[in-house]
TrEMBL record:
Keywords for this protein: DNA-binding, Transcription, Transcription regulation
Superkingdom to which the source organism belongs: Bacteria
Residue ranges of domain HTH lysR-type in the record: 16-73
Family listed: Belongs to the LysR transcriptional regulatory family.
Pfam families: HTH_1, LysR_substrate
Record lineage: Bacteria, Bacillati, Actinomycetota, Actinomycetes, Micrococcales
GO molecular function, one term: DNA-binding transcription factor activity
Cellular component, GO annotation: protein-DNA complex
Keyword Phosphoprotein: no
Protein name (record): LysR family transcriptional regulator
UniProt cross-references to CDD domains, sorted A to Z: PBP2_LTTR_like_6
Length: 332
Protein backbone atom coordinates (compact mmCIF):
# COMPACT_ATOMS: atom_id res chain seq x y z
CA UNK A 1 0.00 0.00 0.00
CA UNK A 2 2.85 2.41 0.90
CA UNK A 3 4.47 1.75 -2.49
CA UNK A 4 1.20 2.52 -4.31
CA UNK A 5 0.78 5.78 -2.37
CA UNK A 6 4.33 6.82 -3.22
CA UNK A 7 3.72 6.04 -6.90
CA UNK A 8 0.52 8.11 -6.80
CA UNK A 9 2.22 11.06 -5.08
CA UNK A 10 5.08 10.92 -7.59
CA UNK A 11 2.71 10.90 -10.58
CA UNK A 12 0.55 13.70 -9.13
CA UNK A 13 3.51 15.98 -8.42
CA UNK A 14 4.76 15.51 -11.98
CA UNK A 15 1.40 16.44 -13.56
CA UNK A 16 0.90 13.17 -15.41
CA UNK A 17 -1.72 13.29 -18.20
CA UNK A 18 -4.11 10.52 -19.21
CA UNK A 19 -3.00 10.49 -22.84
CA UNK A 20 0.55 9.62 -21.76
CA UNK A 21 -0.82 6.74 -19.71
CA UNK A 22 -2.78 5.43 -22.69
CA UNK A 23 0.30 5.65 -24.92
CA UNK A 24 2.54 3.83 -22.46
CA UNK A 25 -0.09 1.13 -21.96
CA UNK A 26 -0.46 0.67 -25.73
CA UNK A 27 3.32 0.38 -26.12
CA UNK A 28 3.35 -2.23 -23.35
CA UNK A 29 0.64 -4.23 -25.15
CA UNK A 30 1.97 -3.93 -28.71
CA UNK A 31 5.73 -3.66 -28.16
CA UNK A 32 6.18 -0.84 -30.69
CA UNK A 33 5.37 2.82 -31.20
CA UNK A 34 3.85 1.87 -34.56
CA UNK A 35 1.55 -0.62 -32.85
CA UNK A 36 0.57 1.93 -30.21
CA UNK A 37 -0.21 4.50 -32.90
CA UNK A 38 -2.41 2.01 -34.76
CA UNK A 39 -4.34 1.04 -31.61
CA UNK A 40 -4.87 4.63 -30.47
CA UNK A 41 -5.67 6.01 -33.92
CA UNK A 42 -2.77 8.49 -34.11
CA UNK A 43 0.19 8.84 -36.42
CA UNK A 44 3.56 7.45 -35.34
CA UNK A 45 5.21 10.92 -35.30
CA UNK A 46 2.41 12.25 -33.08
CA UNK A 47 2.96 9.43 -30.58
CA UNK A 48 6.75 9.95 -30.62
CA UNK A 49 6.40 13.71 -30.10
CA UNK A 50 3.97 13.26 -27.22
CA UNK A 51 6.35 10.77 -25.58
CA UNK A 52 9.23 13.23 -25.87
CA UNK A 53 7.16 16.01 -24.26
CA UNK A 54 6.00 13.66 -21.50
CA UNK A 55 9.56 12.55 -20.76
CA UNK A 56 10.72 16.18 -20.60
CA UNK A 57 7.87 17.10 -18.27
CA UNK A 58 8.33 14.06 -16.02
CA UNK A 59 12.11 14.21 -16.00
CA UNK A 60 12.54 10.47 -16.64
CA UNK A 61 12.79 8.37 -19.82
CA UNK A 62 9.76 6.18 -20.52
CA UNK A 63 11.14 4.12 -23.42
CA UNK A 64 14.56 3.03 -24.61
CA UNK A 65 15.63 1.51 -27.90
CA UNK A 66 16.30 -2.23 -27.91
CA UNK A 67 17.69 -3.42 -31.24
CA UNK A 68 15.20 -2.46 -33.94
CA UNK A 69 12.40 -1.98 -31.45
CA UNK A 70 11.81 -0.27 -28.13
CA UNK A 71 11.01 -1.32 -24.59
CA UNK A 72 9.61 0.48 -21.59
CA UNK A 73 11.96 1.71 -18.88
CA UNK A 74 11.22 0.98 -15.23
CA UNK A 75 9.26 4.24 -15.10
CA UNK A 76 7.34 3.30 -18.24
CA UNK A 77 6.50 -0.12 -16.83
CA UNK A 78 5.22 1.51 -13.63
CA UNK A 79 2.88 3.76 -15.61
CA UNK A 80 1.66 0.82 -17.71
CA UNK A 81 0.72 -1.08 -14.56
CA UNK A 82 -1.33 1.85 -13.30
CA UNK A 83 -3.04 2.45 -16.65
CA UNK A 84 -5.54 -0.44 -16.42
CA UNK A 85 -6.58 0.51 -12.88
CA UNK A 86 -6.99 4.16 -13.86
CA UNK A 87 -9.08 3.15 -16.89
CA UNK A 88 -11.41 1.18 -14.60
CA UNK A 89 -11.67 4.17 -12.25
CA UNK A 90 -12.60 6.42 -15.18
CA UNK A 91 -15.32 3.94 -16.20
CA UNK A 92 -16.66 4.05 -12.66
CA UNK A 93 -16.62 7.86 -12.63
CA UNK A 94 -18.44 7.97 -15.97
CA UNK A 95 -21.03 5.57 -14.58
CA UNK A 96 -21.65 7.70 -11.50
CA UNK A 97 -22.07 10.82 -13.62
CA UNK A 98 -24.37 9.03 -16.06
CA UNK A 99 -26.58 7.77 -13.25
CA UNK A 100 -26.70 11.26 -11.79
CA UNK A 101 -27.75 12.69 -15.13
CA UNK A 102 -30.24 9.88 -15.79
CA UNK A 103 -28.45 8.90 -19.00
CA UNK A 104 -30.38 6.40 -21.14
CA UNK A 105 -28.07 6.40 -24.13
CA UNK A 106 -24.49 5.36 -24.70
CA UNK A 107 -22.34 2.86 -26.53
CA UNK A 108 -21.17 -0.71 -25.99
CA UNK A 109 -18.31 -2.08 -28.09
CA UNK A 110 -18.12 -5.87 -28.04
CA UNK A 111 -15.61 -8.43 -29.34
CA UNK A 112 -16.51 -12.11 -29.59
CA UNK A 113 -15.28 -15.41 -31.01
CA UNK A 114 -16.52 -16.80 -34.37
CA UNK A 115 -19.14 -19.33 -33.21
CA UNK A 116 -20.62 -16.70 -30.89
CA UNK A 117 -21.05 -14.45 -33.95
CA UNK A 118 -23.79 -16.68 -35.37
CA UNK A 119 -25.51 -17.57 -32.08
CA UNK A 120 -25.07 -15.46 -28.95
CA UNK A 121 -24.41 -12.15 -30.71
CA UNK A 122 -27.52 -12.01 -32.99
CA UNK A 123 -29.74 -12.78 -29.99
CA UNK A 124 -27.96 -10.14 -27.92
CA UNK A 125 -28.21 -7.46 -30.63
CA UNK A 126 -31.93 -8.14 -31.06
CA UNK A 127 -32.49 -7.79 -27.30
CA UNK A 128 -30.51 -4.56 -27.10
CA UNK A 129 -32.31 -3.03 -30.09
CA UNK A 130 -35.74 -3.82 -28.63
CA UNK A 131 -35.09 -3.10 -24.94
CA UNK A 132 -32.40 -0.39 -25.14
CA UNK A 133 -32.82 1.41 -28.47
CA UNK A 134 -30.79 4.39 -27.25
CA UNK A 135 -27.63 2.31 -26.78
CA UNK A 136 -25.44 1.92 -29.85
CA UNK A 137 -23.87 -1.56 -29.86
CA UNK A 138 -20.97 -2.41 -32.17
CA UNK A 139 -19.38 -5.81 -32.67
CA UNK A 140 -16.09 -7.18 -34.00
CA UNK A 141 -15.15 -10.84 -34.33
CA UNK A 142 -11.90 -11.90 -32.67
CA UNK A 143 -10.43 -15.03 -31.10
CA UNK A 144 -10.05 -14.84 -27.29
CA UNK A 145 -6.38 -13.73 -27.12
CA UNK A 146 -7.04 -10.90 -29.57
CA UNK A 147 -10.33 -9.92 -27.89
CA UNK A 148 -8.68 -9.72 -24.46
CA UNK A 149 -5.88 -7.63 -25.97
CA UNK A 150 -8.40 -5.25 -27.56
CA UNK A 151 -10.13 -4.88 -24.19
CA UNK A 152 -6.86 -4.05 -22.46
CA UNK A 153 -6.04 -1.50 -25.15
CA UNK A 154 -9.43 0.19 -24.81
CA UNK A 155 -10.52 -0.75 -28.34
CA UNK A 156 -13.61 -2.58 -27.00
CA UNK A 157 -15.63 -2.45 -23.77
CA UNK A 158 -16.60 -6.12 -23.44
CA UNK A 159 -15.12 -9.39 -24.69
CA UNK A 160 -17.02 -12.67 -25.00
CA UNK A 161 -14.36 -15.39 -24.92
CA UNK A 162 -13.85 -19.11 -24.40
CA UNK A 163 -11.28 -21.37 -22.77
CA UNK A 164 -10.69 -25.05 -22.19
CA UNK A 165 -10.36 -26.33 -18.60
CA UNK A 166 -6.73 -26.98 -17.72
CA UNK A 167 -5.41 -25.39 -20.92
CA UNK A 168 -1.79 -24.35 -20.38
CA UNK A 169 -2.23 -21.64 -23.04
CA UNK A 170 -5.42 -20.18 -21.51
CA UNK A 171 -5.27 -16.45 -22.43
CA UNK A 172 -7.30 -15.57 -19.33
CA UNK A 173 -4.39 -16.52 -17.08
CA UNK A 174 -2.67 -13.28 -18.05
CA UNK A 175 -5.74 -11.05 -17.71
CA UNK A 176 -4.47 -7.77 -16.27
CA UNK A 177 -5.52 -6.44 -12.91
CA UNK A 178 -8.53 -4.18 -13.34
CA UNK A 179 -10.24 -6.65 -15.68
CA UNK A 180 -13.11 -8.83 -14.48
CA UNK A 181 -14.08 -12.31 -15.72
CA UNK A 182 -17.71 -13.49 -15.51
CA UNK A 183 -18.39 -17.19 -16.29
CA UNK A 184 -21.41 -17.60 -18.61
CA UNK A 185 -21.78 -21.13 -19.99
CA UNK A 186 -20.20 -24.54 -20.23
CA UNK A 187 -20.59 -26.48 -23.47
CA UNK A 188 -19.78 -30.01 -24.54
CA UNK A 189 -17.02 -30.63 -27.08
CA UNK A 190 -18.12 -33.47 -29.36
CA UNK A 191 -16.51 -35.77 -31.90
CA UNK A 192 -17.29 -35.48 -35.61
CA UNK A 193 -16.48 -38.67 -37.51
CA UNK A 194 -17.59 -40.26 -40.79
CA UNK A 195 -21.04 -41.86 -40.52
CA UNK A 196 -19.66 -45.16 -41.85
CA UNK A 197 -16.81 -45.25 -39.33
CA UNK A 198 -17.00 -48.43 -37.17
CA UNK A 199 -17.11 -46.32 -33.99
CA UNK A 200 -20.07 -44.26 -35.23
CA UNK A 201 -22.41 -46.88 -33.75
CA UNK A 202 -21.27 -45.87 -30.25
CA UNK A 203 -23.06 -43.15 -28.27
CA UNK A 204 -19.75 -42.06 -26.74
CA UNK A 205 -16.41 -42.79 -28.42
CA UNK A 206 -13.30 -43.61 -26.40
CA UNK A 207 -10.71 -41.13 -27.69
CA UNK A 208 -7.88 -43.63 -27.17
CA UNK A 209 -9.38 -45.71 -30.01
CA UNK A 210 -8.78 -42.85 -32.47
CA UNK A 211 -4.98 -42.97 -32.33
CA UNK A 212 -4.66 -44.00 -36.00
CA UNK A 213 -7.05 -41.42 -37.40
CA UNK A 214 -6.18 -38.33 -39.39
CA UNK A 215 -7.37 -35.22 -37.55
CA UNK A 216 -8.77 -31.85 -38.54
CA UNK A 217 -7.69 -29.03 -36.21
CA UNK A 218 -9.25 -25.60 -35.69
CA UNK A 219 -8.07 -22.30 -34.19
CA UNK A 220 -4.87 -22.27 -32.05
CA UNK A 221 -6.80 -22.69 -28.78
CA UNK A 222 -8.92 -25.50 -30.23
CA UNK A 223 -5.82 -27.17 -31.67
CA UNK A 224 -4.20 -26.98 -28.23
CA UNK A 225 -7.24 -28.65 -26.71
CA UNK A 226 -7.12 -31.41 -29.32
CA UNK A 227 -3.47 -32.06 -28.50
CA UNK A 228 -4.23 -32.15 -24.77
CA UNK A 229 -7.16 -34.57 -25.20
CA UNK A 230 -5.10 -36.92 -27.36
CA UNK A 231 -2.11 -36.69 -25.01
CA UNK A 232 -4.37 -37.70 -22.11
CA UNK A 233 -5.56 -40.63 -24.26
CA UNK A 234 -1.97 -41.75 -24.80
CA UNK A 235 -1.11 -40.63 -28.33
CA UNK A 236 -0.06 -37.71 -30.52
CA UNK A 237 -2.67 -36.93 -33.20
CA UNK A 238 -1.75 -36.80 -36.86
CA UNK A 239 -3.14 -33.43 -37.98
CA UNK A 240 -3.45 -33.32 -41.77
CA UNK A 241 -5.99 -30.49 -42.11
CA UNK A 242 -6.50 -27.16 -40.37
CA UNK A 243 -9.53 -24.86 -40.60
CA UNK A 244 -11.67 -23.01 -38.08
CA UNK A 245 -14.65 -23.08 -40.46
CA UNK A 246 -17.16 -25.51 -38.89
CA UNK A 247 -18.97 -26.09 -42.20
CA UNK A 248 -15.67 -27.02 -43.85
CA UNK A 249 -14.78 -29.35 -40.96
CA UNK A 250 -18.10 -31.18 -41.20
CA UNK A 251 -17.80 -31.62 -44.95
CA UNK A 252 -14.23 -32.89 -44.66
CA UNK A 253 -15.47 -35.42 -42.11
CA UNK A 254 -18.38 -36.40 -44.37
CA UNK A 255 -15.87 -36.95 -47.18
CA UNK A 256 -14.15 -39.52 -44.93
CA UNK A 257 -10.81 -37.70 -44.85
CA UNK A 258 -10.54 -37.23 -41.08
CA UNK A 259 -12.14 -36.77 -37.67
CA UNK A 260 -12.43 -33.66 -35.52
CA UNK A 261 -13.43 -32.24 -32.16
CA UNK A 262 -16.07 -29.51 -32.35
CA UNK A 263 -17.69 -27.39 -29.62
CA UNK A 264 -21.45 -27.81 -29.47
CA UNK A 265 -21.93 -24.14 -30.40
CA UNK A 266 -20.29 -24.78 -33.78
CA UNK A 267 -23.15 -27.14 -34.65
CA UNK A 268 -25.90 -24.66 -33.80
CA UNK A 269 -25.95 -23.04 -37.24
CA UNK A 270 -24.04 -25.62 -39.32
CA UNK A 271 -26.09 -28.49 -40.73
CA UNK A 272 -24.44 -31.88 -40.25
CA UNK A 273 -24.12 -33.45 -43.74
CA UNK A 274 -25.40 -37.02 -44.29
CA UNK A 275 -21.89 -38.49 -44.38
CA UNK A 276 -20.93 -37.20 -40.92
CA UNK A 277 -21.92 -38.31 -37.43
CA UNK A 278 -21.70 -36.45 -34.11
CA UNK A 279 -20.89 -38.41 -30.97
CA UNK A 280 -19.92 -37.65 -27.37
CA UNK A 281 -16.34 -38.33 -26.31
CA UNK A 282 -15.17 -40.55 -23.49
CA UNK A 283 -14.03 -39.01 -21.28
CA UNK A 284 -16.36 -36.02 -21.68
CA UNK A 285 -14.72 -32.87 -23.03
CA UNK A 286 -15.99 -29.33 -22.36
CA UNK A 287 -15.35 -25.68 -23.16
CA UNK A 288 -16.10 -22.64 -20.97
CA UNK A 289 -17.60 -19.39 -22.27
CA UNK A 290 -17.07 -16.19 -20.32
CA UNK A 291 -17.41 -12.41 -20.40
CA UNK A 292 -14.36 -10.22 -19.76
CA UNK A 293 -14.80 -6.55 -18.86
CA UNK A 294 -13.18 -3.72 -16.96
CA UNK A 295 -13.97 -3.91 -13.25
CA UNK A 296 -15.85 -0.60 -13.41
CA UNK A 297 -17.96 -1.51 -16.45
CA UNK A 298 -21.08 -2.38 -14.44
CA UNK A 299 -21.22 1.22 -13.22
CA UNK A 300 -21.54 2.55 -16.78
CA UNK A 301 -25.28 2.33 -17.63
CA UNK A 302 -24.86 1.35 -21.27
CA UNK A 303 -22.40 -1.40 -20.36
CA UNK A 304 -24.42 -2.56 -17.35
CA UNK A 305 -27.46 -2.99 -19.61
CA UNK A 306 -25.38 -4.88 -22.18
CA UNK A 307 -23.82 -7.15 -19.55
CA UNK A 308 -27.27 -7.96 -18.16
CA UNK A 309 -28.50 -8.78 -21.67
CA UNK A 310 -25.51 -11.05 -22.31
CA UNK A 311 -26.11 -12.94 -19.06
CA UNK A 312 -29.79 -13.35 -19.98
CA UNK A 313 -29.09 -15.00 -23.35
CA UNK A 314 -30.75 -18.47 -23.25
CA UNK A 315 -27.77 -20.69 -24.01
CA UNK A 316 -29.88 -23.84 -23.76
CA UNK A 317 -31.13 -23.07 -27.27
CA UNK A 318 -27.68 -24.12 -28.53
CA UNK A 319 -26.90 -26.85 -26.04
CA UNK A 320 -25.07 -24.58 -23.60
CA UNK A 321 -25.35 -25.04 -19.84
CA UNK A 322 -25.43 -21.87 -17.68
CA UNK A 323 -22.54 -21.93 -15.19
CA UNK A 324 -24.96 -21.70 -12.24
CA UNK A 325 -26.71 -24.85 -13.43
CA UNK A 326 -23.39 -26.71 -13.55
CA UNK A 327 -22.65 -25.73 -9.95
CA UNK A 328 -26.13 -26.81 -8.80
CA UNK A 329 -25.83 -30.17 -10.55
CA UNK A 330 -22.42 -30.80 -8.95
CA UNK A 331 -23.83 -30.05 -5.50
CA UNK A 332 -26.71 -32.52 -5.84
Amino acid sequence: MLSIMRDYEWMTELDLDLHSLRIVRAISDTGTITGAARVLGFSQPAISQHLQRAEARLGVPLVIRAGRGIRLTEAGQLLARHAVTISSALDAAAGDLAELAGMRTGTARIAGFPTASSTIIPRLLHTMASQHPGIVVTYIEAEPPEAIGMLGEGAVDLAITFSYPGDRADPHRDVASGLHLTPLFTEEVVLALPARHPLAVEEAVDVSLLDRERWIAGCPLCRGHLLAVCEAAGFDPVIDYETDNAVAVLNLVAADVGVALLPRLALATAAVPPGAAIRATAPVSTRDIQLVSHAGAVRVPSLAATIAAIRAVPGADWGLTPVGAVARAAAQ
